[in-house]
Amino acid sequence: MKKIIKTNNAPAPIGPYNQAILTGDTLYISGQIAINPVDSQLVQDSIKEETEQVFRNLKAILEAAEMTFENVVKSSIFISDMNNFNEINEVYSKYFNEETAPARETVEVANLPKFVNVEISMIAVKG
């Protein structure tokens, strides 16, 4: 049985999908981009600020499912330019302890929704 996770503290989906799905103890979070849920505007002042907004959105969804970044077991990062990797990774490292960080891949792609620079999806597990 799946449960739809939805919060007004993260941007509404821009297509036919949900912010996250909880099935059993596993949460699947859809890719998040840097849309500010308050005004629906993209945050793209800098790659660091864009990545911070992505993490604020991810945090809001985790909280809606009564989880934290400690529950995350897998991250997928999609970036439009691998030259931004170090700055994205710098922000990423603020949310995870190196010893308990989740598995992860980072992939450079040709384009992302709304032509953003970074999109991150996650899988988290309760317990």
TrEMBL record:
Assigned GO CC terms: cytosol
Q: Name one GO molecular function term.
A: deaminase activity
Q: InterPro entries from the entry?
A: RidA, RutC-like_sf, YjgF/YER057c/UK114
The record's section on CDD domains has: YjgF_YER057c_UK114_family (cd00448)
Task: Name one matching Pfam family.
Answer: Ribonuc_L-PSP
Q: Which family does it belong to?
A: Belongs to the RutC family.
Protein's name in the database = Reactive intermediate/imine deaminase
**Which species is this record about?**
Salinimicrobium marinum
